[in-house]
Amino acid sequence: MSLAETTEARPLAEPEPDRPQPADPIVTRRGWRAKLAAVAAILGGTALIAVHASFYGHWLIDDSAITFAYSRNVADGFGPVLQPGASPVEGYSNPTWMILLALGKLVGLFDHGTIFGVNDQILFPKGLALACCLGVLVLFYFGAKTLSRRPALITFVAGAALAAIPSFVIWCFSGLENSFYALTVAAVAVLCLRAVQSGKLLNHQVAAGAGLIAVTAALTRPDGIIYAGVYPIVVALFLKRELLARSIRAVVVSVAAFVVPYGAYVVFRWFEFGRLVPNTAVAKGQEPPTLDDLARPGQIVDYVGWLIVAVAVACLVMLLVRPSRLCTGLIALLAPFGLSVVAFIVLESDWMGQLRFATPVWTLGAFGGAIVVVEALAAARPRGRIVLACLLVIALVSSVSSFYTQGTSYRANTKTAMCIVAERDAQAINGFADILKLPDTAQVGLIDLGATSLGSRIRVLDLAGLGDKPIADYLHDNNLAGLRDYVFGTAKPEMITFIGSWITTLQFDKDPRFDSQYETIFVNRPIGDMTADSRNWVSYHVRRDLADPAKLAELQAYAQKTLPPVLERNKTEGNRGCAPITPGIKAS
């Protein structure tokens, strides 16, 4: 046997298992520094978001309390109803967020009283939103690790960008589902990004995961159904002829992972609520987009600033023209970002302002923007780096100035606050109901549904249609006469309360039946300053057959005693907190 043959036949030497090689101290130090940088970037970005959120005080939008009411009743065993004993109506459009709140109630963190002296109906949703924002930045870090040697820097820059955008912070901490929605959108984007970078895009686990995350998004907001298209689009972008059959199988797996659970919920919705879409979608009358809606992305660019967008786009183009792993990753991210812009185009404009439906655009835009800016600065030559840095400073000064104006403006005139509605409407309605000795089955017709459904001891009739199927149908068909016929002829609520111009919008002021069947208890008309008066333009009415002159005088005296102090506070303390909102709450 030759020496060569002997050598080839001899097994390779293996290190003894009981004698591990000592770790390189330099590598160990670098590893710890990277971990510390990651933690600092994630916590730092989250802290900046929290600081901005505190700018709006204890404010929660009243519509969020509609979901709170459903979560309370689910946790208490009454099912998905607005009030115990009410007919099932899907007056919410965010099942996953509702379930998260219900779980919070079950473990004693939500709708039980106070935590550290703060109403947990305020503190828990805001704390949950902050946890979601932290989760978004964690995802950003793991996504950035596949693209860059500077993942911590990219994560912090993205977090700082989100913290600077009032639209993102306002709606993530409004009590609505925006923060969890942002988390689901970031999750599906990062999953596909990492799969592309690791060469595992066609793995069935990845395909199924993308479909399941898309289901979560679709059950967090109805427009989230669009993110079922992320995985198929990313697969199409990187399609190779020799992998066609495997690609088709992977897309089928992803679609099935989405369709099966989402279809199951649609079946549940049909049997439980009698509709294929949320009742809220019927009431709001979502219409197909028009050609004019194609200009809506201009609202996003105007909001964030044309210069900063131009700089980010220039950085993106500079990186895309150089084939690399970074280029591949950016292409993968463009799919979910593009779908988020399409969803914004399709959705109807929202009365709450501050581009409420743009949260996914901000989420993915901040991540992508941070990547391209950081990497473009690193790739540029010294002279180009100086020019780019100067342009960034100018653009940032302009954008931050605009953000500050947007934020302070909204803080001064936040939309319909939950605590204002609780103290203005729920307390007044309960006081009136007690004076009239109404049973719990009596009804009050109203507009601001959230806090009143949490705090009213009598049934609520939603004149805006979100929580009432017949009224939703009338509004969808723009049949205001039919709506009033239903109110005066079928529902016949014992009391009615209006806010703002709704009495005119629904044309109750022009219907003679309103004056003939209802007497006014209290009315506070606008005097010109709509910043304050939009919260105080209210009126309360009682059915004439329930209040003789003496009883009406008693109701009016109670209103004059309890409502003016609340309305006065509304002028200057629109973002205040309130005591826990429970059925039957009344003014002290």
What this model shows, in words?
By secondary structure, this protein is mainly alpha-helical. The chain contains 25 helices and seven strands. The chain has a five-stranded mixed β-sheet. It has a two-stranded antiparallel ribbon with strand order 1-2. Helix 19 links the parallel strand 3 and strand 4. Helix 20 runs antiparallel to helix 21. The longest helix is centred in the last third of the chain and has 31 residues. It is elongated. The protein starts with a helix and ends in a 16-residue tail after the last helix.
Describe what is shown at a glance.
This protein is mainly α.
Rounded Rg: 28 Å
User: What's the end-to-end separation, in Å?
Assistant: 103 Å
Overall structural class, as computed from helix and strand content, comes to mainly alpha
Query: What percent of residues are in strands?
Result: 5-15%
Give the low-confidence spans. Answer: 1-18
Largest beta-sheet details? 5 strands, mixed
Count of runs of 4 or more consecutive helical residues: 25
Shape: elongated
Mean of residue pLDDT? 91
Number of strands: 7
Helicity range: 55-70%
